[in-house]
Each structure stands twice: as structure tokens, then as C-alpha cells.
């Protein structure tokens, strides 16, 4: 089955009902998350307790996942109705992470086009379990932010960018360098460079760990080169996680219908649930359970994948809780 086509389709009427914009709700939620991020950052800045600092940094990293999942919506032009607003949001929110938005966008759309196939730029977990496969797999878990920086700022542009894309990419780089230079210069003048770097970079480390967990769980040990429906995992997780990470855990529906905004992915899942069951697509309950299994098993091969899928088929089916 081609990985570049939809495995199942909704009726046009169903799809239309799921693709409307909700600008007031979206804007309010964005402002809420930035306010919470500012609050926990201020808490860490003013706290005299090391425990409080680390808890605040962990919370900030978790909230950065919230912002990045909004940015993910922007790559599909479904965060705002106007395309330029999606671009502006994506570019600005990637400044603190020092990652190229245009590179992320192009890579991510390729991932959707060739999901879980040899042409998928994000399918690094599949290989031959050689030394480099193990290094790439566990390095991504431990140092995901650094590898993401290198991949999107250097490796992907060098391999794939056109002259126009390079111009946009370099423009983004100038903007990011300018912002960092201004921040560092100001922090030095105020005599608090160490404190500024701490409240900026430590949360990025926590974000990196959470992002690696989410990213690996979305497709690890799903059928290889069998299309978007079979080659994607939905993680039911919990309502708190779904709220803060903008329903990205309902991932099968997103890959089948990337034009459906985050706030309709639960409804979408309910509509395609029979198709998910018929295709034997994978629905799990917990990010941490999937991630722990991936850490223990390491890089994939097609042979190991087939054995893992057979073991799953031999177990009782995981059912989805009734959706509100």
C-alpha cells in the first residue's frame, strides 16, 4: 500500500464540519499557555529553593511542548485562517529553541507525505541495528534538542533546500542571532547572564526529553510502509496531557486528515474508530509505556518489527474509552 495516500476517507460533509477555524478560542489558549510559561519562569527566577527551581523548569519544559504543538498546527496552516499568521507564529515561537521554522515545516510535510516509509525523513528508528543506528536512537533521546538544532539548521537545508528556501532560512537565522545577541548583551550589562541562560536553557532540556518521548511514541513499532492509518499510533494519554499538548496524541486522525485542527481531533477519532479497528491500527494508553518499551528495545529492523506486531496481534485488543 502506498504511504502517500489516505487509507480511509470521511464524507465531504463530515470533513467540512471538522475543519472550521475558532480564532477566539485559539488565541485565548495561546495567551493562557504563554502566561503560564511566564509565571513558572518568574517563579524560578525569584525562588531561593533549588527544588522549586527544578520543578518550575520541568513545568516550563512541559509548557514549551504546548507552544511547539501550536507551532505544529501552524505548519499545516490550521492554527490561524490567514497563512501569514501561521508563518509569523511559527518563526517567532522557534526563536527561543533556535530552530529553523521553514526547515521544520518542509521536513514535517515530507514526513506526512512519506509517513513510515523509506522516504520518510523522520524514520530514523528503522535501520539495521548497527552501531550508528544505536548511536542515533539513544542520542536523540538524550540530546534531542542539540540534534534537532543541527538537523533543521544545517543538515536538512544542505540536503534539500532550493535558493528561495535558503533565503528564507538565512533570514530566520539572522533574526534568531539578532535576538540572542540582544538578550545576551542586555544580560551581561545587568550582571545576570548566568541566571538568564539558566531559565532559558534548563527548560529546553526538559522540553527535549518530553519531545523525544512524544516523537518516538507516535510511530515506533507501527507497520512499515503500510500507509498513514496503519503507520501511526494514537496515544489516549489523559485529558490534562491532551489539553496542554493540543490533542497531538490523537495522532492517527491527524495523519489521515492534517487539515483538521487540534480541537476537533477527538471527534475525528470517534468517526474513524471503525476504520482504525478494521485496519488493526495501534492505539495505546500511555506515552510513558510506549517510550519505556522503545528504550528497552532500541532501533528497529523489519524482522524485529514483524515479531513485535505479531506479539501485539496475539494479545487482547486495547479498547478506546468512551469519548465525551
Q: Please report the number of helical segments.
A: 14
Any idea how many domains?
1
Shape: globular
Q: In percent terms, what proportion of residues is strand?
A: under 5%
What structural class do helix, strand and pairing data support? mainly alpha
Oligomer: single chain
Separation, N- and C-terminal Cα atoms: 33 Å
Biggest sheet architecture: 2 strands, parallel
Into which percent range does the helicity of residues fall? 55-70%
Radius of gyration: 20 Å
The arrangement of helices and strands along the chain is HHHHHHHHHEHHHEHH
Going across the major beta sheet, what is the strand order? 1-2
Mean pLDDT: 94
Number of strands: 2
Residue windows where pLDDT falls under 50 for at least 5 positions: 1-7
Q: Any overview of this molecule?
A:
The chain is mainly alpha-helical. It has one domain (12-314). It contains 14 helices and two strands, in the order αααααααααβαααβαα. α7 packs antiparallel against α8. The longest helix has 30 residues, at 131-160. It is globular and about 65 Å long. The two termini are 33 Å apart.
Amino acid at each position: 500500500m502506498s504511504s502517500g495516500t489516505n487509507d480511509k476517507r470521511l464524507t465531504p460533509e463530515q470533513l467540512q464540519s471538522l475543519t472550521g477555524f475558532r480564532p477566539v478560542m485559539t488565541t485565548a489558549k495561546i495567551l493562557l499557555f504563554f502566561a503560564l510559561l511566564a509565571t513558572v519562569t518568574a517563579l524560578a527566577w525569584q525562588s531561593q529553593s533549588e527544588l522549586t527551581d527544578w520543578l518550575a523548569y520541568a513545568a516550563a519544559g512541559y509548557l514549551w511542548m504546548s507552544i511547539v504543538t501550536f507551532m505544529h498546527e501552524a505548519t499545516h496552516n490550521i492554527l490561524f485562517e490567514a497563512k501569514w499568521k501561521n508563518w509569523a507564529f511559527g518563526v517567532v515561537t522557534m526563536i527561543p529553541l533556535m530552530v529553523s521554522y521553514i526547515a521544520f515545516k518542509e521536513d514535517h510535510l515530507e514526513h506526512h507525505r512519506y509517513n513510515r516509509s523509506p522516504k520518510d525523513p523522520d524514520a530514523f528508528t528503522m535501520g539495521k541495528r548497527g552501531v550508528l543506528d544505536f548511536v542515533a536512537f539513544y542520542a536523540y533521546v538524550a540530546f534531542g534538542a542539540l540534534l534537532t538544532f543541527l538537523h533543521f539548521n544545517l543538515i536538512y537545508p544542505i540536503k534539500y533546500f532550493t535558493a528561495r528556501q535558503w533565503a528564507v532560512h538565512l533570514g530566520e537565522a539572522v533574526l534568531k542571532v539578532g535576538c540572542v545577541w540582544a538578550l545576551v548583551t542586555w544580560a551581561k550589562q545587568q550582571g545576570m547572564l548566568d541566571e538568564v541562560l539558566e531559565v532559558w536553557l534548563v527548560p529546553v532540556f526538559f522540553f527535549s526529553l518530553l519531545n523525544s518521548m512524544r516523537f518516538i511514541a507516535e510511530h515506533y513499532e507501527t507497520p512499515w510502509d503500510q500507509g498513514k492509518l496503519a503507520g501511526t499510533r494514537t496515544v489516549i494519554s489523559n485529558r490534562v496531557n491532551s489539553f496542554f499538548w493540543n490533542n497531538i496524541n490523537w495522532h492517527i486522525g491527524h495523519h489521515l486528515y492534517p487539515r483538521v485542527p487540534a480541537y476537533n481531533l477527538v471527534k475525528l477519532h470517534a468517526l474513524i474508530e471503525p476504520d482504525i479497528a478494521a485496519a488493526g491500527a495501534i492505539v495505546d494508553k500511555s506515552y510513558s509505556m510506549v517510550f519505556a518499551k522503545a528504550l528497552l528495545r532500541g532501533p528497529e529492523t523489519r524482522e524485529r518489527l514483524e515479531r513485535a506486531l505479531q506479539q501485539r496481534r496475539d494479545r487482547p485488543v486495547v479498547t478506546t474509552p468512551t469519548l465525551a
